[in-house]
Amino acid sequence: METRMGIHYKMLDEEKITAIVLAAGNSIRYGKNRNKNFDIINGNPVLMYSLKAFDKNKYVDDIVVVVKKEEIEKVKEIISESDISKNIKIVLGGNNRKDSVYNAIKSIDSDIVIIQDGARPLIKQKYINECIENMNDYKGVAVGVKSKDTVKMLDNENVVINTTNRESTYLIQTPQCFRRSILVDMHEKYKNINVTDDCELLEKDNYKIKVLDGDYTNIKITTYDDLNIVKMFLKSAQE
Fold first, then answer.
1. Cα distance between residue 27 and residue 69, in whole Å
2. Is the C-alpha dihedral spanning 130, 131, 136, 137 positive or negative?
3. Is the Cα dihedral 175, 234, 170, 27 positive or negative?
4. pTM score of the predicted model
5. In this predicted structure, what is the pLDDT of residue 49?
6. Which of 106, 122, 230 lies closest to 174, judged by CA?
7. Is the peptide bond before 121 cis (omega within 30 degrees of 0)?
8. How far apart are the C-alpha atoms of 34 and 57, rounded to whole Å?
9. Burial grade of 227 (CB within 10 A; 0-12, 13-18, 19 or more)
10. CA 40, CA 159: separation in Å to the nearest integer?
11. What does the pLDDT read at residue 10?
12. How does pLDDT run across 124-143, given as a tens digit for each residue?
C-alpha cells in the first residue's frame, strides 16, 4: 500500500490496465459523411490524441481501439505512422456504443478498463490518473462537469415533467473506469437494455459511481463546429 494525500491506494502495478478507445460511431451529426475520428487537428487525426495520451500514461499497459470493419485498414495505417510504443489491439465495433464496449471488454483479460471516446481529443493525464487511482474505492469512476444550465425532463410531447437540481446535475464525459469483471457481468445481465454510457449499467445494480471534476474544454466532437472549438482550445493551450 502507498499513501497519496492521506488516501491509501493498492499498488496499481499489480493490476493489468487496458485503455479502450471508441472510434466505431457513425458520425451522423457530424454532417461531413466521414468519421470525425480521422479529421486532422494540428497534423494529427482526432483519434491520435487519445492514443498518445494512453501511450504515455504511467498506469496503462495496453490499448484497444474499437472500429468499424470498413475502417480497420485506415486505423492500422494511422497507428503504423505514429510513434506509439504500447501494444494496440483493434476490435470490431458493434451496432451501438454499448455493443462496441462489450466487444472490447470480452476480447481482453485485464483487471481494470478505462474507456475513452476517440472523438474527445482534449483528454488530460490528470483525468486518466485520477480515474484509475479511485478504482481502489469504487467499481466505477467517471469524469464530469457541473451543468451550467437548468436541465428539465420532458415527456414524449416535449412537455416538462420536472426540473433537476442544477447544483447536483452533472454532464458526464470520458474517460470512465471500471473493474472489467463487473462491467462484463453488467453488460451480460442487461444485454437487452441500451444505455448511453457504461456507468448506467452499474447504477442499475446500485454500485456507487464516483464522478471526478473534469473541465469544460474536455468536449466530444459531435458536430463540425465542435472541431473548430477543439482547435481553438488547443491553440490557447500552446500559447
1. 15
2. positive
3. negative
4. 0.91
5. 96
6. 122
7. no
8. 29
9. buried
10. 41
11. 53
12. 999 999 999 999 999 999 99
What digits encode the pLDDT tens for the residues 37-56? 999 998 999 999 999 999 99
The structural architecture, per CATH, of the domain 2-238 is Alpha-Beta Complex (3.90)
Asked if pLDDT for residue 201 goes beyond 70, the answer is yes
**Amino acid (1-letter code) at residue 64:** V
Q: Taking the C-alpha atoms of 25, 54, 178 and 188 in order, what is their torsion angle to the nearest 10 degrees?
A: 40
Strand order in the sheet with 112-117: 88-92, 62-67, 17-22, 112-117, 170-179, 140-146, 209-213
Average pLDDT, whole number, for the chain? 91
Instruction: Determine which helix (DSSP H) or strand (DSSP E) holds 80, and give its type and residue range.
Output: helix 72-80
Cell numbers given for 76: 492500422
What one-letter code names the amino acid at 19? Answer: A
Q: Is 185 exposed, middle or buried (0-12, 13-18, 19+ CB in 10 A)?
A: middle
pLDDT at 6: 41
Render the burial of 197-219: b for 16+ CB within 10 Å, e for the rest. bbbbbbeeeebebbbbebeeebb
Predicted pLDDT at 239: 54
Please give the single-letter amino acid code of residue 129: N
**Which string of DSSP letters, residue by residue, matches 30-46?**
G-SSS-GGGSEETTEEH
DSSP readout, 15-30? S-EEEEEE-----GGG
The average pLDDT across 184-201 equals 95
Lookup result for grid cell 454532417: 31
pLDDT at 167 over 90: no
